[in-house]
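Fold sample X.
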Amino acid sequence: MNAPALSVLRAGRVLPAADAVPLGPSEIRIDAAGRIAAIAPVAAGALTPEEARLLVMPALSDAHDHGRGLRTLACGVADQSLETWLPDLGRVPRVDPWLNAAVALGRLARAGISVVNHCHNTQDGRVLLAEAEAVSRAARDVGVQVAFGWPFFDRNPLVYDDLERFAALVPAELRADVLASGAGMRDAATNMALFEQAKAFEHGGFRLQYHPVAPQWARPETLRAIAVAAARENRRVHMHVLETQAQAEWAARAYPMGLLAWLDDLGLLNDRLTVAHAVWLTPAEIALLARRGVTVSVNLSSNLRLRSGWPGVAEMLAAGVRVAFGLDGMALDDDEDMLRELRLAWHAAAQGAPLGVGLDPRRVLQGAFETGRMSALGPDGGGRIAIGAPADLVALDFAALARDSLVDDPDPVAMLLGRGQNRHVVSVWAGGRQIVASGALTQIDLPALEADLTRMAREAHAAAPADTQRIATMRAALQRFYAKPAGQR
């Protein structure tokens, strides 16, 4: 990105950090390197009416996402349990990867997000390298900083364990395909070589992470190789862990000593690792993650929509786990609203607390400001409005947010967590560059690109409709495969 010119931002309120005291009318100066050069109070009368309405705070982070510009519901993929939802993704038509990524990242920027962990899902492994290059361009074009999770998926292509038992549950004409489903999976050596080539796509707003998709989907030797490579290169690692009950049951059978303990033995549990979901953790596993400095991306909307369960947000925070928050491409209302996601997490963490006691909302904001950012970029001093920090900022229309307040000076944290939404986002800066102004993207025409993506998807769907009968057959077989005997329900 080109260095931004020196700029000045004024606002009626500033929340410098999750744990900071809110400031009154202030001026923030951003230097040519895209960092905060000064923060100073100003007279309220010096602000324009538009400036006086604003609350400025650190930009948000999305600690776990999949870059779905083309939303799954639009493709006829109904919300359901993850295990039967995955084959339903066969309904998603193939579209231009740059367009898909630009729309996805543009929506996140519009929601006040400047940093995202993008866990890439490819529909065709043969074009993964080209897709990574397209996402790299989209990150530059939109202005959002992307940590690109390079997927390693070389185990259990259709079910967790025992492919032959699953093959017996599908019609005879599909059995050969089921049994051969793992034949086209990229081995670790091939994937590592592609990863090396993809390093050419890195720039200031795009960097690679190792992304073993999940323990059940990556071979032990692949996980071990990633642990070694990540340590050697000081690169971050991102992985789904214990998202569903079926995964937890598989892990208990496969690793009786404990899945997290096994991953620790491989050298994966450290402060460079982020695990997504982590719904089915035991107290001992929560404690282990805390000791190792692992970050957990909580994705409550996705867990609700995919019937995965309720993560122990309060328990993890109480144990000292670094907790961040992700949309997973599955926001509750399909609208990429991170402020609503934070509200959901805050209320969820308060359930079961003693009367009158709940989670400090600043703990949630810290996950959105600092912890999620660190999970993507590592410690860079961001997530706070401080001298020398990266100027990643979001300005909200606080006057609209607190429009009916009877209090002269309403608490901005209470208002944010209580009712903040996408529609309150006015402007966003990433690295000192304004990427959203007056509610619109500055570098791309998001509505036009959304229209182009919908048109392209409809054309692709008409030209190559999904095999819905095959999808339904596979879903039915999966339901039988994962069904428990009556005595175990």
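Fold sample Y, listed below.
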Amino acid sequence: MTYLLARFADTLTDSGQWTLDDRLAHLTAWENAILQKNPSLWKLKGTLGTFSESEVQLLLIGGPLIEALKALSERSQDLSLAVLKTLISAMKWDLKTFSAATTAQPVYGCRDLATFDWYCVSIAGCVGAYWVKVFDLPQNLENLAIEYGKGLQRINILRDCMEDFQRGRVYLPQDLLKKFEIEETNFWTSITWRDFVLDCLAETRTLLRYGANFCDAIPYKNWRLRWASMMPVQIGLETLSKLESEILDPQSKTKISRAQVRALVWRTSLDVLLNRKLSPRIRTRGEAS
């Protein structure tokens, strides 16, 4: 349920061809409706013609989704609302920060590492903390889960940085780019771009190691949760390896093949079945074996 509510907000933020003002108005209305658990506060205005069929189907069930939220236990409602509030705050920041972004005049949204870290926590790390609470995992796993979520978001940003730049959006921390003396125009052409990316990849791999420790600490009886948590670590490590190998070709698209994903599914299933730990393999090889 929480996923659908968040997905609804994400659709309002990214999909279709609404104006910025319309997006912010819809996102605020949706936030108010779910925080107050009042379906009458949500009313979609405007056409849905620019959305895909699946997105339209989702946007048409806003009221029932809120009713389903109200049917959850009080604790589940509180946990859902807390993580949704954080996620929506990051979505609003995204909309407002890059409202004037163009290819000709890119906007550097994160002036420093602190802002970059806040964004990664608010858009992904908070989900890790939510999982710890909603699945009643040991509280000492919360920090690991947050760092894990941050790592996954960093991968998204690193993987898509060229594509985002073409839209006028730069999520990479501006102070770190300056530290590496990287030009703000077509920064991937700077002679220090390779060093910058390798530094970011190393830090992100460390965050995924925290994620592996988080997965290993999930009790064996929660095998479904363990499997669902281990898969992103495996895919993330494969993506980092591809980014590292393709750094000399910035225009190439980093994408894991379906065959690779199927292989990871089988490997992760065996890891869970045999109660094998993921973290030792990452520590010794720098990536999943």
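Sample Y note: Residues 1-75 form one domain.
Also: Confidence is low (pLDDT under 50) at residues 284-289.
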